[in-house]
Amino acid sequence: MSLNPNTMNSLCLLRLSAIGDVCHAVAMVQAIQRQYPELKITWVIGKLEYQLLKHLPHIEFVIFDKSQGWRSYFNLRKTLKGRHFDVLLHMQVALRATLASLAISAKTRIGFDRARAKEGQWLVTNQRVEPLTKPHVLEGFMGFAKAIGVKDLTPQWHIPVPIADTEFAQTQIKDNEKVLIICAAASKAERNWLPERYAAVASHAISKGFRVILCGGPTALEKNLAEQILQACPSKIDNLVGKTSLTQLLALLKRASLVLAPDTGPAHMAVTQGTPVIGLYAHSNPGRTGPYLSQQYVVSVYDAAIASQQRGEVKWGTRAKGHDLMKLISFESVKKKFDKVIEDYSLLLNR
Question: What are residue 220's DSSP bridge partners?
């Protein structure tokens, strides 16, 4: 390639959203930083995602606030006016990201391979990562680090949180306390499991000596689902839905014994903290979007769902459609995974 990685002084990373994806991107960024500790990195990121990652060391963040509409593109251009980067890592396949990239001046502009460079991305890049047949999102991101010469692609995460947020988590979860955190809600209601089944898992966990905490954001969807779970569970559950910042939630996930979640950002946040995750999947392929270090604990009906909708070879990343697919995930299958995590992490849970 024309780029000589050893002559790079500045790098711009374009990845605006979402929470789970930026968690994957952190592993890639920190792999770059390990090999090129002097490289100046600027990350163009979404407003919400910035709240989670704003304490990352040695990274300049430029916020792209999509809620501003067309003004967001003009504001980005104004912020970056007169600046030139040695390389741009264009890591988001979305029309708004393609348009946003026009405000970033860089001689080397690396995007996805042709099969994945949708939404016009291939029009605004001049180099591509190596194609991968069936990559996890994280592995696809690591292709960008590889493209600039990074050798060690082992995912590692260090996402700092303020001391006050760590202390908050310590007041919520005591040392040696066994805690199951349920992050029940995804961004779309159809990807949420049934509240009575979440409640049944909570009851099972409590019977095993666990404390159960519900966590999530402040949206009406998340609060309503939490209330339904509380009403369906005869045992006591602590409800912190809508009561934590993203960094407070990250600190809580670090102190949890395990996490139960559908295909949603907090599942991947938990992975960054080394906490095992039971992921619930029906619409998306967990091989592509599942909790990266907890694939063995995923409960998935995706294969059955997609097989009922398509014949022959299914393109990697294809989503299954339907509002009732999550009903296919049984309580018994999740209970079995819960018991497996307890067995596998027995020393951890008894610490």
Answer: none
Question: Using one digit for the tens of pLDDT, what is the confidence trace for 106-158?
Answer: 999 999 998 888 888 899 999 999 999 999 999 999 999 999 999 999 999 99
Domain count, the chain: 2
What is the spatial distance between Cα 62 and Cα 44, in angstroms, rounded to a whole number? 5
3-state secondary structure 192-218: CCCHHHHHHHHHHHHHCCCEEEECCCC
Radius of gyration of the chain (CA): 21
Determine the distance from the C-alpha atom of residue 26 to the mean position of all C-alpha atoms in its chain, rounded to a whole number. 10
Confirm whether 154 is domain-assigned.
no
Token representation of residue 76: 């980005």
> Are 22 and 52 contacting, i.e. CB atoms less than 8 angstroms apart?
yes
**Nearest alpha carbon to residue 73 among 106, 103, 42:** 103
Q: Are residues 69 and 211 in the same domain?
A: no
Please report which residue ranges of 80-162 form alpha helices under DSSP H: 95-101, 137-147
- How far is the first Cα of the chain from the last one, in angstroms, to the nearest whole number? 50
The SS3 assignment for 320 reads: coil
Domain carrying residue 309: 163-349
Tell me the average pLDDT of the chain: 95
Backbone phi, psi, residue 14, to 5°: -110, 100
Question: How many residues comprise the chain?
Answer: 351
| 285 and 232 in a common domain | yes
What does the pLDDT look like over 63-122, one tens digit per residue?
Answer: 999 999 999 999 999 999 999 999 999 999 999 999 999 999 999 999 999 888 888 889
